Every structure is written in C-alpha cells, then in structure tokens.
Amino acid sequence: MAILSSLRRRSAAISVAAVAGATAVGVCLAVSSASAGTLSGSLYRDPSSAVVRWVAANPGDSRTAVIRDKIASQPQARWFANFNPSTVQSEVSGFIGAANAAQQIPVLAVYEITNRDCGGASAGGAPDLNQYQTWVSNFARGLGNQTVIIILETDSLALLTCLSAAEINARNQAISTATRTIKSGNPNAKVYLDGGHSTWNSAGETANRLRAAGVQYADGFFTNVSNYNSTSSEANFGRAVISALNGMGISGKRQVIDTSRNGGASGDWCGDDNTDRRIGQYPTTNTGDGNIDAYLWVKPPGEADGCRFTAGSFQPELAFSLANGAPNPPTTTPPTTPPPTTTPPTTPPPTTTPPTTPPPNTTPPAGDGCYASIAVNQWAGGFTASVTVTAGKSDINGWTVTVPLPGGAVTSAWNAQVSGTSGTVGFTNVSYNGRVLGRQSTTFGFQGTGTGPGVLADCVTS
Length: 462
Known about the structure:
TIM Barrel; Immunoglobulin-like; alpha/beta; 462 residues; 7-stranded parallel sheet; 4-stranded antiparallel sheet
C-alpha cells in the first residue's frame, strides 16, 4: 500500500502549517451532465476491499454505519503492490472481469517499482528492473480490452532523492517501457504517471520528470495520492504542469486527482495521527473540468500510512475520523450503456462468468411506486449482484427491495440496509438514497456465497 515517505510528508507539513485555518474543500460538489475530461462512466466499487470486509464483519460497531455509508459505498483503487509475477495476471483478470461485468471502470494502482519509497515505510517492489518488466508484462496480459484506469507507480518520479543519476535514468526508462507495455496489452487503458502534488516539486520540474519518464506515451499524470492538498490547489498545479508540457511539445495530457482525504486543511502530517482530516470529493469521472479526467480515491480512506499502524492496514478509527461529519455521497443514476471508446470482448473475461441477466433496464414503470432489476456476476462459490431501483412517474421517499435467495447467503451489502441473509432477503434504503425522483434510479449491491438471485425482485415504497 502506498504511503508518503517521511521526506515527502515533511515537505507537505510545511505547506499545511502555512495554510492552517484555510477553508476546507467541499466534499460533495454538484456536477454537470458532461464529464469534461476524456473519461465518462461510473467507477467500479471493489466488493472485496478491506473496508467492505470490515463493515461486513462488524455490524454492531458504533462506527459501522458512518464508515459503510461514506467510505465502503464508494469506488476506490485496487492496489497491486506484491511482487508475484506468476499470479498477477490471474489476479488482474479476475478483478477486471468483475468490473467489466458490472459495466464500470476499474482503478488499478501499480506500486511495484524497484526501490520504491526510497526504503521508507512502504519499501519493497521488484528486486530489479528486469524482473519489474516481467511483472508488468504479466500484469498487462490480464487487463482485457475495455476502459481501465492505471495509476502507475506513486512517488516514483516525485521522490528521487535516494537514486543516483544512472538509477534515475534507468527508472525513467522502466516507467516509459511499462507505460507502452500496458498500452499494448490494452489499448483502452488510461495510464497516468506520478506528478507528486502541489506542495512538493514545482510544476516545471514535475513536467521535466514526466517527460523523461515517457509521459508522451501516457494519458497524463496523477497528483495528491495519500496527501491532503485541496482540489483547487491541485487543479491549479495540474494546469501549470500541462502548460509546461505543452511548451515542450507534449500536448493532450490530463490530470487525475486523489481526493480521498483532502476535505480538511488541518491536522498532523501523518494520516495515522490526524483527527481533523476528512474525506474529499467523492470519486467521479464527471469533473466538469477539461483538464481533469477524474477525481479518484487512490489511497483508500482508513488505510494507515505507517506511523502508528502498519502501512496499508485498515484501521476503523482512521476511517471513522475521515468520514464522521462529512456530507453524504450523492445519489447517482447508473449508466445504461458501457463506457464509451471500448469494445466488448468477444469471449467472457478470464476467470469470470458474465452476468446472468442483461444490464438493468432503467425504463421507469408507467405508474407510481418503484421497481427493481438485478444484474448478477456469478462465480464458483460466490456472486455479486447490482440492483437498480427505479421510481415511477412520481418521486418516492423510501424503498424496500425483497430478493429471493434460495441457494445462497448474503455476506455484505452497500448502499442499502440488509435484513436477513438467505431465503427472502430485504434491502432498505440508507439515509442518502431513499429519495428518488420520478423516472430516476438509484443503485445498491450485495455480495454472497453460493448461488446468486434470479432476475425477479419486488420493490415497495416506504
């Protein structure tokens, strides 16, 4: 799991102290119907993430509802940080296959570069750069051919203090080669390189480092991973980097910003010790800014930095601190078509079974009330299900969906409260998605063992 090195954190701490008392960035911003960047579509929520597993295992904890509704409900990056060249392809293809079945865009954070974090709390990576390229080649083979977002090697370009000039040149070549390998494996992959953050290296220096590492082969750069700088500051920094790249003859590059914990401007530099940080803007490709492709949660909220807890471990007290008092996420309507610029695979993705039903039909019923449709991703021994709740011609202010589940058992759910685990299982709206406007929809999902539900579900209004 990526964290900031102590060197990077200290540079950030200086800027944080300088802006103490500044207005916190808004968490839940209204967005327009146009995405503005080069990406559109909904982001994939990993149903087996650490926070989802914690929520499922701790239903009675006083912090669970807040963590469930404001963090576990949201799409976050899946990190690939273990040097496992023999199994990485199957791990990637399984994750990609589930996202493709849900017709959503997965975010993958690659964190495997040799001598990562300059030997800090997140030290590790491939033993050498030749073995790194082997790992990347196997990683790329699992990516399929639909849209995916790749966050390639956090800190790899912004943090170079431990490397000699020859080692910097070798790293730049390795990242450039990795970018082209990923693009060759999946031409629809959107690859972003490390741009540090707005209070680290200058925009000009960042652009120079991106150019040296082959950003011309990538789609752009990412900033603010694991950090707390405001979205507006990062956007201004990104514009300056893009301008500098344009001056070098490298055009068409865009930014993605990690907003996982930049909703507050005060607190200790280390995320393990802060009590004043908050989650930032919820993840979306709908940025309304032509320079920014997405606001992402790259660093999963609640996962430690390595100061007080083991780096990358999920800590509910950190998650609760980030989520408590933050606005609820917006209720969104899922896309009725796959993300653009993708071609469906001619065969099912490896290690996955395609949905047993077609994508949810979002045509509202003619009368009042609500109805529900289900898309199921089944595999040996388990399943995930995505349920679309659609209002009739009038607004509704609460809903309950009952799902027959004779051959399986629910283990976790998101965006809904669950009653029962097998037989006939009930799902009721949570605080932020009970109100659905006429002819509009909201979604929830659940995961389980055994056989998933069929295509029928009943929906009643509260």
